[in-house]
């Protein structure tokens, strides 16, 4: 199992490129199931989740060709598509549930393993099931699988008005993809507005789908009989960008993040600027400057995670690591996932002063962390621990970085290019 060894205390300087977004690439790979034509994605990040999704699609019979240039991958889902997502693959990546909508729309059948919970929460998928049932699917949960089909005599899902009980990102994506090939109009109320959703919608429109309202809470989809192939560049990863902004804020330095989309990160950038970090648009990205380690000059910021355009839950751990070494106290409130404070006990092992009370974490800034061995528990917790390790005195070992590899494209290579003393070691 790989680990990261970090010798903290180095400021970050230079420039790197932000990769394509995991949370856009995964649904967009599934969208290739909606047509028998070739679909080419570019700017696909090199991630473990992308490899898992490739395996999942290959298992369905999708032909996949890697181009090597600019993260290009072509998918060709020729008939017959095997509409099954087995537990062995789904258990390592919850986003496998994104195959459910496209499989049903394309083949009228799907057998997708229930994803189950993960370290950050129970993460049920009953809204996905409820919405697809409203579109005419018959879905039974049997032996840990969602087994879905269309009623006798029907060949297409039917348009429906779907209002989910809560805002769900992958739920919205499942309905959006399913509705493109449904008969009639689908209206998604209470739709998620995360930038990965309009990016997926733009791709589907290139494939011939009729969609309006994407990027708002009401999306309208006019179903069409057939979709065709397209080429689409995956939008830049706002969470990777935010993670590097926090890393530079923590260590101090001056870094240009090519492809960084400040317009997708307003809530995080506002907090960083209030803390005292200097962030400006430059060329095709963002420049971030911070004068020395956070404890010298940054003011801790309270925040509350909410759906987009609010503060993203996927940035909570990284910003908490920054608060832990900024001046003053702050309160971090997690409203999306019920168990997303697993990094707190590990940050405490490095010397952070954080108390949890239900959904709130009270952070008292300290002016020093000291390196230790810590264990990554989930993807963004790992990123928070890396940020803490970059400023901690001495050596920090971050164990179980397979979590990090799920969602960061060569993070340690990019950090090393910026001057960090970080290396990957295997066992
Ligand atoms: C691959 C992907 O894009 N993952 C993102 C997606 O996850 P994901 O789409 O799984 O997260 P959701 O937006 O669905 O979850 C939001 C909340 O709704 C709950 N819920 C959701 C669906 C459902 O049927 N029932 C239910 O109770 C969840 O448990 C959670 O508490 O959005 C999350 C919230 O921004 C991000 O942290 C993840 O990075
Ligand atoms: C929680 C996350 O992802 P996933 O939904 O793929 O688990 C994340 O990206 O932080």
Brief overview, please?
The protein has two domains: 2-19 and 236-426, Enolpyruvate transferase domain (UDP-n-acetylglucosamine1-carboxyvinyl-transferase, Chain); 22-233, Alpha-beta prism (UDP-n-acetylglucosamine1-carboxyvinyl-transferase, Chain), CATH 3.65.10. It is 32% helix and 25% strand. It has 15 helices and 24 strands.
CATH class of the largest domain, named Alpha Beta
Low-confidence stretches: none
**What ligands are attached or bound here?**
uridine-diphosphate-N-acetylglucosamine, phosphoenolpyruvate
Helical fraction equals: 25-40%
Mean pLDDT: 97
Strand coverage percent: 25-35%
- The quaternary organization reads as single chain
The CATH superfamily of the largest domain appears as Enolpyruvate transferase domain
| Tally of DSSP β-strands | 24
Main location: cytoplasm
InterPro entries: Enolpyruvate_Tfrase_dom, Enolpyruvate_Tfrase_sf, MurA_subfamily, RNA3'P_cycl/enolpyr_Trfase_a/b, UDP_GlcNAc_COvinyl_MurA
Catalytic activity: phosphoenolpyruvate + UDP-N-acetyl-alpha-D-glucosamine = UDP-N-acetyl-3-O-(1-carboxyvinyl)-alpha-D-glucosamine + phosphate
Pathway: Cell wall biogenesis; peptidoglycan biosynthesis
């Amino acid at each position: 199992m790989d680990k990261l060894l970090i010798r903290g205390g180095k400021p970050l300087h230079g420039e790197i490129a932000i990769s394509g977004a995991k949370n856009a690439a995964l649904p967009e790979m599934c969208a290739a199931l909606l047509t028998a034509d070739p679909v080419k994605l570019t700017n696909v990040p090199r991630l473990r989740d992308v490899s898992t999704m490739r395996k999942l699609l290959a298992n369905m019979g999708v032909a996949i060709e890697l181009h090597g240039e600019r993260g290009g991958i072509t998918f060709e889902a020729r008939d017959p598509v095997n509409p099954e997502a087995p537990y062995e693959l789904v258990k390592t990546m919850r986003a496998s549930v994104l195959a459910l909508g496209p499989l049903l729309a394309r083949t009228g059948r799907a057998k997708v393993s229930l994803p189950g919970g993960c370290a950050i929460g129970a993460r049920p998928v009953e809204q996905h099931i409820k919405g697809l049932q409203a579109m005419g699917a018959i879905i039974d949960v049997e032996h840990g699988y969602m087994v879905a089909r269309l009623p006798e005599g029907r060949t297409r899902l039917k348009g429906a008005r779907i209002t989910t009980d809560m805002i769900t990102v992958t739920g919205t994506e499942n309905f959006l993809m399913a509705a493109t090939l449904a008969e009639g109009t689908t209206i998604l109320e209470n739709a998620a507005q995360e930038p990965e959703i309009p990016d997926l919608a733009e791709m589907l429109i290139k494939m011939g789908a009729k969609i309006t309202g994407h990027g708002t809470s009401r999306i309208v989809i006019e179903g069409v009989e057939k979709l065709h192939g397209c080429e689409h560049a995956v939008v830049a990863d706002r969470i990777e960008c935010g993670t590097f902004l926090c890393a530079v804020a923590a260590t101090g330095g001056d870094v240009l993040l090519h492809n960084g989309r400040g317009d997708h990160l307003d809530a995080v950038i506002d907090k960083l600027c209030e803390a005292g970090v200097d962030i400006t648009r430059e060329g095709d990205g963002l420049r971030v400057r911070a004068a020395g380690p956070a404890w010298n000059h940054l003011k801790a910021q309270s925040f509350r995670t909410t759906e987009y355009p609010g503060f993203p839950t996927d940035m909570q751990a990284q910003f908490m690591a920054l608060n832990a070494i900024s001046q003053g106290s702050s309160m971090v409130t997690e409203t999306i996932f019920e168990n997303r404070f697993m990094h707190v006990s590990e940050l405490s092992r490095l010397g952070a002063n954080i108390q949890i009370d239900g959904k709130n974490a009270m952070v008292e800034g300290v002016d020093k962390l000291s390196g230790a061995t810590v264990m990554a528990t989930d993807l963004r917790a790992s990123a928070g621990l890396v940020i803490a390790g970059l400023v901690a005195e001495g050596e920090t070992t971050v164990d179980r970085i397979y979590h990090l590899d799920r969602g960061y494209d060569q993070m340690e290579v990019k950090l090393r290019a910026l001057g960090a003393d970080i290396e990957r070691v295997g066992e």
